[in-house]
Structures are given as structure tokens and as C-alpha cells.
Predict the structure of Thioredoxin-like protein.
Amino acid sequence: MKRVFAAFLCAGLFASAPFGVARAELVLAMFERAGCIYCRMWDDQIAPIWPRTAEGAIAPLRRLDLDRRLPDDIRLASRPVFTPTFVLLRDGVEVARLEGYPGEDFFWGLIGEILRKQPEWAENDEKGGVEG
């Protein structure tokens, strides 16, 4: 009887096990502040197209107010000081950081350098989903 129960138990565990490995969530947090001219420049130049880019597909944007309490689901190496500060988060934990907005041309190169180090970039590149 114990063997039959053990067989059913094992079968139930295998049936309930996920078939794939869960992927960690990758997010680009933008710490901003009201009145920040560089935040406004980013909003004008990058924000409208971010969701339609390979970078935006890999790391969706999450906006955070620098002057508010840090959400409980975020762990940073240190509190941002400058606005905007872009922090790449994996499951809420800081992976990389870009402080300030150096303009459209430099931003794409710098943020691209950060994202190309992530496994999601290579996976999407192999599928033909990432340019460059």
C-alpha cells in the first residue's frame, strides 16, 4: 500500500512541476524628479519610442519619484542622487546603473552596452528580435 501511495505522490509532484524555468523580471527603473529638465528631455526624445524598441522589449520602463520612499520590492546598491538615474533591475535588485541623461545619441549607446550584457539580449538576438 505504501508503494502505491508513493507512486501516486511522485506522479502528482511531476504533474504539478512547471515545464520551464521561470525567467527573472528585467526592468529599467527611471528615477526622476518634478522640474528636472533632463527628465523632460528624455521624455521628449526617448519615452515615446522606448516601448517599441528592442531595449524597451527586454527591459520595460518603471518610473519612480526620487523624492518618494523606495518601494519595498526594490533593492539598490545605493540611493540615487541625480535625476534622471536609470537602474536596471532583475527581480527588483540592481544590476547596473546609468546616472544622468547625456542626450539621445549617447543614451542609446550607454543603455545598449548595459543591456547587451544581459542574457535576454542574446536570446532575442538569436531569434532575430534585437537589432544591432
Remarks:
- The helical segments are 2-16, 37-45, 54-58, 104-115, 119-126.
- The domain at 24-126 is CATH 3.40.30.10 (Glutaredoxin).
- Residues 2-22, 128-132 have pLDDT under 50 and may be disordered.
- The radius of gyration is 20 Å.
